[in-house]
Amino acid sequence: MDPILSQDRAEFTALLAATLRHATEYVEGLDTAPAVAPVTTPEPEPLPERGYGLAGALDAFARRWAPGFSASAGPRYLGFVTGGATPAAVAGDWLTSVCDQNAAGDGRSSANALERHTTAWLAELLGLDPAFSGSFVTGATMSNMVGLAIAREWLGERMGVSVAEAGVAALGAVTVLSGTPHSSVYKALSMLGLGRDSLRVVPTLRDREAVDPTALRAELESLGGRPAVVVANAGTVNTADFDDLTAVAALRREYPFWLHVDAAFGGFAAVSPTYAHLVNGLDQADSVCVDLHKWLNVPYDSAVQFTRRRDLQTRVFQNHAAYLGDPGDSPDFLHLTPENSRRLRALAAWFTLTAYGRQGHREIVERNISAAHRLGELLTASPRMRLLAPVGLHTVCFTLAENPTEARIAAVLRSVAESAETFLTPTHHLEIPAIRGAFSNWRTTTADVDRIAAAVRQAVDDLS
Hints:
- The protein is of the alpha/beta class.
- It folds into two domains: 3-71, dopa decarboxylase, N-terminal domain (Up-down Bundle); 91-351, 3-Layer(aba) Sandwich (Aspartate Aminotransferase, domain 2), CATH 3.40.640.
- The chain is 41% helix and 12% strand.
- The chain is globular, with a radius of gyration of 24 Å.
- One of its GO terms (biological process) is carboxylic acid metabolic process.
- This is Glutamate/tyrosine decarboxylase-like PLP-dependent enzyme.
- Pfam families: Pyridoxal_deC.
- One of its GO terms (molecular function) is aromatic-L-amino-acid decarboxylase activity.
């Protein structure tokens, strides 16, 4: 054995304790740390011929890389839709690495059973009935891709062919309809060979991101009975808007289509009695995307895809090899997702669900929603800012009251980032340059919201 590796093995317990100290210092500083740090790129170093050992690697990381990390796990990072990681989720993620289970197949381990148990809990949390089965994937992009891959096979089934065997050319022209599709949907269509051009954007309700059911009906009618795929939204990026899922699903009584719902973060509205109505009809979908490293607050990378048609899913993703066995009636996960080798992502989710239950995660969701409403009120108290949409869930979409050009929005965002108080991202809504902030971190408090609002107001006031 390499002598440095041998020494690390002998001192593994002490080295893990040293790693814990590094992690503890980081976590304890999150509430006060700058939301973003000055981006520094260390000069490249040659690959070490002789390594430094774990202690040396920890030291090199602390000196070279850690100072440039953002506090994206902290309470005032509102860019994208970035959750943190609850204490239990961190513990589960650490144990995932320590135990190093390959969750692809049976492998004489209970890992597969734990994943099935966890996906069943998540389905219950989201209000999905037992007809749905779930599998862990890396994120919303992969979850959407798996759902649309199953939809692609369903289109073939309607035509009497298997796309998994004959190829996508057997389908001919395909139509995908959506009101406000997430960029990952386009990416998934490209990867699946259906093509970005297969997606028709359907008109939305006035000043909304929610699809207009009447316009969707007209698009489906125009297909003359040809089957299609409809991608509905449970939480859009800019305004966290929701399609009327019940109305969309009802159209299947007249027209043949596969209903895929992108509920990456909005699906978690289901845990709150106040907001659960937003996802009415989610259980009528054929496939559902939900992203756990957003509002469930587990570490990256973690998402789940759900479907009613596991038979079609297996047809797409089954892996033929003598040592893997036949999928059978209860296929291993390597027959259900793109990956053969996969870590036990379910463990972090199991830990946080076990530790905090439905009530604990409901509290996180409702506190984040309250934070978004408070931020909206604080920002619009200034005559220099206005909301572009009412705050309905956890996202605040706002712009300058006067002359909201891209350059002026960019200047505000630079100033906010330089303050290190918070981090927000640019967008366009209703064709207007804007700023959006999404609350999804379990740490965020009212005091954090006040600091965020003060930083934004100052940046806008400083705008020449």
